[in-house]
Automatic annotation (TrEMBL):
Keywords attached to this entry: Membrane, Signal, Transmembrane, Transmembrane helix
UniProt source species: Sesamum radiatum
Location within or outside the cell: Endomembrane system
Membrane topology: Multi-pass membrane protein
Coiled-coil region: none
Main location: membrane
Family classification: Belongs to the DESIGUAL family.
Transmembrane segments: 6-25, 54-73, 93-119, 140-161
Record keyword Cell inner membrane present: no
Annotated GO CC locations: endomembrane system
Keyword Transit peptide: no
Protein's name in the database: Fiber protein Fb34
């Protein structure tokens, strides 16, 4: 199997879009402030936009699709043909493990960030008596997911490239390979005909 440029372009595009959306999620995190209720003497949390939840889940889905495409093409290293031995196989195994670790870490950050961002404090407190704390997502969760998405992209592309090299042994198969060999095999004298 050789390196397919369309597969690389699709994988890079999906990863980069996921990266940009994750950065957007970090910038659009929910903010909250304690405001007094106009009808009674209680306070409650007023939250801003929930856009980063949708952004985080979109980045999660794009990263998942990209990982499925790359590992579907390579048959996830485990279910394909055997690979040639050597340095390329060792690198392919290393980048396979590294791409999965960075992928799972990125997905965990994006999913946890989306879930935490969607959580809003529902209870109320008595005005000037109780201190109400509004639950919000910590700064940097989506940023970590974006960074891990970028690392996952690099690891996945390097895995795909080294897997392709190890799968073909570093050589491209040539058309008409072996046609010159057939005539020489049949023109040699057999040992039994020499003795006659």
């Amino acid at each position: 199997m050789g390196v397919s440029v369309p597969i690389i372009v699709i994988a890079i595009a999906l990863h980069l879009i996921a990266f940009v959306v994750a950065v957007g999620a970090e910038r659009r995190r929910s903010t909250a402030k304690v405001v007094p209720d106009e009808y009674d003497e209680k306070t409650y949390c007023r939250y801003g936009t929930d856009a980063s939840t949708a952004y985080g889940l979109t980045a999660f889905g794009l990263l998942l699709i990209s990982q499925m495409v790359l590992h579907g093409v390579t048959k996830c290293l485990c279910f394909g043909r055997g690979m040639m031995g050597g340095g390329s196989t060792t690198c392919a195994v290393f980048f396979f493990i590294f791409s999965w670790v960075s992928f799972l870490a990125a997905e965990a950050c994006l999913l946890a960030g989306s879930a935490r961002n969607a959580y809003h404090t529902k209870y109320r407190a008595v005005f000037h008596v109780e201190h109400l704390s509004c639950a919000t997502l910590r700064k940097g969760v989506f940023a970590a997911g974006a960074a891990l998405t970028f690392i996952s992209m690099m690891a996945s592309i390097l895995y795909y490239w080294t897997h392709s090299k190890a799968d073909t042994g570093g050589w491209e198969k040539h058309h008409n390979e072996g046609l010159g060999m057939t005539s020489s095999v049949f023109t040699e004298k057999s040992p039994s005909s020499e003795g006659q």
